């Protein structure tokens, strides 16, 4: 099968390009939204998976929480240690998170749906459930298929950053499988591809409930507005207090 795309895609060049493209500009707003949906107490034990270069993890650490960041990319972890110190950063696969227990698990920035087999997504979410303390909270923030169906243009090539650097993203959506197949042209002209399963809201809610979570809610933004085709998807779910 070869090396999966997600094992090498998230390197320093990816981070530099997405930063130039503005993908990380709303970090402060996102952190405020995260805190608004988590229990209102100090010293939460938080697992950020995958944590990337630590932009959310460090901000939450600065707010007094004990944050562990897990990521498979050694480049991302090195950037986190350099630029966002404070949290505990661990190298590992999201399907096998550290033991915990945690009061909250965060899965942000469309970081679900990487695996070839949907069963592996279910395995990851079940593992997050099991690492939570009773009553703990899961937050997932991602795209969803209804929104994609509204904004998707199969012929569009989307520039990344200033046009002068020549970077762009293009590709196709397989509506039968729900998998989005995209190619990124980097500033140096090289190309790299990624493939993400994009769930409908009802599908991902069912997956989360199937992993054992209670009190599962969906929002269209960090302010807690209703879901719909114009916004992204935020799911908040809790592990039952009986474990």
Short description:
The chain has 243 residues and is an alpha/beta fold.
Order of helices and strands: HHEHEHEEHEHEEEEHEE
Strand content: 25-35%
Distance between the termini: 37 Å
Would you count the extended β strands for me? 11
Largest beta-sheet details? 7 strands, mixed
Helix content: 25-40%
Separate helix tally: 7
Which structural class do the helices and strands define?
A: alpha/beta
Low-confidence stretches: none
What's the pLDDT, averaged over the residues? 95
Rg from C-alpha positions? 17 Å
Strand order of the largest sheet: 3-2-1-4-5-11-10
Shape: globular
Question: Would you kindly provide a written description of the structure presented here, covering whatever features stand out?
Answer:
The chain is an alpha/beta fold. Helix content is 28%, strand content 27%. The protein contains seven helices and eleven strands. The chain has helices spanning 12-20, 27-37, 55-62, 74-83, 118-131, 145-151, 201-210, and strands spanning 45-48, 66-71, 88-91, 102-107, 132-142, 158-159, 168-174, 179-185, 191-197, 214-219, 233-238. Strands 3-2-1-4-5-11-10 form a seven-stranded mixed sheet, sandwiched between helices. Strands 6-7-8-9 form a four-stranded antiparallel sheet, with no helix packed on it. A hairpin with a 4-residue loop joins strand 7 and strand 8 (179-185). Helix 2 crosses helix 3 (55-62). The mean pLDDT is 95.
């Amino acid at each position: 099968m070869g090396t999966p795309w997600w094992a090498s895609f998230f390197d320093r060049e990816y981070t530099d390009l997405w930063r130039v493209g503005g993908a990380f500009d709303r970090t402060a707003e996102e952190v405020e939204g995260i805190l608004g949906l988590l229990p209102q107490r100090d010293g939460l034990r938080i697992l950020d998976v995958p944590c990337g270069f630590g932009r959310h993890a460090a901000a939450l650490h600065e707010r007094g929480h004990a944050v562990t960041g897990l990521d498979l990319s050694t480049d991302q972890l090195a950037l986190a240690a350099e630029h966002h110190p404070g949290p505990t950063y661990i190298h590992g696969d999201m399907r096998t998170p550290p033991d915990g227990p945690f009061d909250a698990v965060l899965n942000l920035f469309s970081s679900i749906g990487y695996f070839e087999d949907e069963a592996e997504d279910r395995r990851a979410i079940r593992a997050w459930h099991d690492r939570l303390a009773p009553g703990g909270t899961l937050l997932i923030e991602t795209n969803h298929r209804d929104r994609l169906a509204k904004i998707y243009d199969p012929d569009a090539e989307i520039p990344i950053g200033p046009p002068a650097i020549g970077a762009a993203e293009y590709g196709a959506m397989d509506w039968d499988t729900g998998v989005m197949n995209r190619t990124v042209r980097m500033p140096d002209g090289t190309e790299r591809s990624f493939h993400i399963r994009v769930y409908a809201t009802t599908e991902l809610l069912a997956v989360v409930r199937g992993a054992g979570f209670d009190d599962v809610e969906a929002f269209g933004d960090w302010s807690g507005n209703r879901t719909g085709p114009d916004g992204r998807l935020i799911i908040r779910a809790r592990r039952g207090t009986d474990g």
